[in-house]
Fold:
Amino acid sequence: MSFLFDTNAISETFRRRPNEEFVSWLDSLPPEHQFTSIVVVGELFAGAYHSSATEKWLTRIEADVLPRLIVLDYDLRCAREFGRIKAELQAKGHPVADLDIQIAATAVRHRLTLVTANKRHFEPIDGLTLTTFEAGAT
Structure:
């Protein structure tokens, strides 16, 4: 099984006291089964630029995170999944942020299990397989 990591799943590894069970599970996964979306990478960079330690976080993302993951582009097929998912959520009255829908669409398009601590953001999305975890202490 292969996994697409949401922003909070990657950020979990940056915490002072991350969820140890999650980190251990993550370390057990073969590298070829670890993916993320270019949308997630954009969120990580936004967080770095918002930080008072911008250079530290940019270096950490580029040196520690990106070499360990396969980064998937947001392409036309992802955009089509985005449209389907957004329309279905709107019809059900479930508002979900567009970036979360783009991340979910990438997971659905590539048939990957989305790993997130934000279960409620993604639960209403049909066709999405989730693995969730509890975030550790800050």
